[in-house]
Amino acid sequence: MKSPSPQLLRALRTSLANTRHNPGQTRFSVLPTTVSPCHSITPGAAIPSARRHNSSAVRPTRMVSRAHAHKPTSRDRGPESQEDTQTDFNALNVLGNIPAPTTAIDACLDSGFHLNNGVKVSNGDGVLLVGGEAFAWRPWKAVEGAENDSAARDSMLNAKGQFELDESVWGVLNLVWPKPGKFIAVYGLWPYMLILGLGGSMFPLSPETKRHINSLGIRVDILDTRNAAAQFNLLATERGVTEIAAAMIPIGWKARPL
């Protein structure tokens, strides 16, 4: 049997010395002899849990990094396929074999337009495309009381900043045959459409001008001239020039509200 260590002997001597100085104090705690009576438990009553007031720390879920695909080391896709079932995306262009209308707009200039049939509209004139025909369009000439052309061009915007023109500038639309209004009465459709290009910017159309165009059985779409030209080329190729018309002002027109 091993002898006790010096540290243990020193602790025992210190304990015995304290007991001699305090004889009423013992080294051991005395348990109570009386036991408290047990309380009766009512059936169905909740038994208090020892962990009710002890909130245990929840361990955070370990985040597992997602596996990212490695970058390909080469862009080589192997030999070209010789199968006959390959998709030819050029064949999906259903309008590719349809010739563009002769009045399609090839270029929009600050002072005019270049059409697909070689016609060039210049001198700051607009263009009116109706039924496959092209007309030079000067709607500001209908403005009365203007000092010069520059003031007349600015007068195409009313005091509210809305694009407004006299009814006389739409006279050529009254000559369209067959009258679109007949189709509206029979089928409830608006087959004829006017694309209105308002120069380099887009402005709201005045209610009076829109009401007059709609009274002719024509619906109107307002865009700036560049987007209006692209829209006209697409719709005229798809639906034909007999259903799509356009009235455009050169992109060089910078409107100044009154």
Automatic annotation (TrEMBL):
Q: Tell whether Lipid biosynthesis is among the UniProt keywords.
A: no
Q: Which UniProt keywords apply?
A: Membrane, Transmembrane, Transmembrane helix
Q: Pfam families, from UniProt?
A: DUF498
State if Transmembrane is listed as a keyword: yes
Q: Which PANTHER family match?
A: NADH DEHYDROGENASE [UBIQUINONE] 1 ALPHA SUBCOMPLEX ASSEMBLY FACTOR 3, NUCLEAR PROTEIN E3-3
Which Gene3D superfamilies does the record match to this protein? MTH938-like
The species this protein was found in: Penicillium salamii
Its Gene Ontology cellular component terms are:
mitochondrial inner membrane
* Membrane-spanning parts: 184-205
Its name, as the record gives it, is NADH dehydrogenase [ubiquinone] 1 alpha subcomplex assembly factor 3
UniProt-listed GO biological process terms: mitochondrial respiratory chain complex I assembly
